[in-house]
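Record format v2
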Amino acid sequence: MNSSKSLLRVENISKVFPNGDEEKVVLSGINIDLAEGESIAITGQSGCGKTTLLLIMAGLISPTSGNLFLNGKAYSETSNDIALVLQDYGLPPWKTVADNIRLGALLQKIPVSDNELKNLKSQLKIEGLDHLYPHQLSGGQRQRVAIARILLLKPKLLLLDEPFGALDALTRERLQKLLLNIFRQRGFSFIIVTHDVEEASLLGRRIMVMDSNGGGINTVIDNPGFLSEGYRDTQEFFEQVKQLREVLKASD
Amino acid sequence: MPRYISYIVTSATVVVVWYAISLQIGALLLPDPVSVLSLLLTEAGSARYWAHVGASSWRIFAGMGLAFIIAVPFGLVVGTNPKINKIVSPFISMSYPVPKIVLLPIILLLFGIGDVSKIILIMLIIFFQVFITSRDAARNINKEMILSFRSLGGNKLQYYRHIVLPASLPGIFTSMRLAAGTAVAVLFFVESISATHGLGLYIIDAWGRADYTSMYVGIVSMSLLGILLYEFFEILERKTCKWKHTQ
């Protein structure tokens, strides 16, 4: 699955926010190299700057210093090759499911065939919901719609900020499985930010642990069992979770 | 209960209560509803009555329409641009509490006693209500939705079309419904001061002649105008904000 060609390079990124008369360093010296078809899970304590880092990579916030490269080209704004999925789905409540799914394609003027839409909805199990509004859906369905909207854009890089954090355990497990299936089939790269140790161990080929008090990346853990069949139920997965939990405790 | 049934029930209740009060205080002060409604039906057949209704309707629709056309885009732009908001808001905060109705003599001096001055005064009073609601609605849009929309590649114009306007519409229509009552009150005031036609003049003229049945015909007509305006914005909201009315 992995190829060695670099897709995203984050080079020495730092972010400082004004805090009254002082300054608060949220990120410093962040370096990430993500290959095409690779996945990274970023985890750490609440307030360690995970979401800020993701928004910087999405081109939505400017870093105080450092550079971002996509396919070797520097960028500082949003790109059609990068898509973002947030915890609260970001679905405009005044648009029906059908309109929400098509929104990104409409904005980027990407033609979408009815067949493509049908297949996508079938893959994500959101058929028959077209005329409903987001508040008429369950949390899991809303997140599936948000993912469908993104997949229609065929991004090279998917950035996910705690995408399953508001869902119950079973729905979360189903959507994690769904994400991995789509990842296998479509071959994009993704970076997921999560505070859930098991989720990070399941979804990241590499797991990056951030310092708790606004620093950089404290530890990078390799996750060789990633994507292997039935990984969640193996002893290897259990050991991986245990190791990650110990690193997190040490970084607190 | 369907809306029209609730209107019929409410109207019937008002007529019964009106009739009871009329019996208590006498027809001289409060003519009974049957006399008023039969005179209203007679008046509805005269061109003179419709000239009054037409003049009032034109002024109120023009005043509210202008307020809507100017205040909504201005409010949305100010609400979504913190820098512009910082400059504009102090002016709004200072001028909103000033009772605009006291500006009537100045407006009459500047624009004469015709329709323009009346429309401008209605527009001026409604403008602030609609502007403040639009600005605040645009300012309070969910931040995550904005981030998500930007990440989808939406440009500024698309942002206003797909996010800012629909997010603000329910608040805007609420302010327009509230403004309908204010606009009718202002209309009565300006038409009672200087007008050759209009329901305000119709009421004041009947009052001056101590023709209380005609006066109540004017009051009922003006109330109907207010109700029609209210319903117009209610229907517009139901058509454009369908998502608000789904379970």
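Chain A has two domains: 6-81+156-251, 91-154.
The beta strands of chain A are 6-19, 22-35, 39-43, 65-70, 73-74, 82-85, 157-161, 189-193, 206-210, 217-222.
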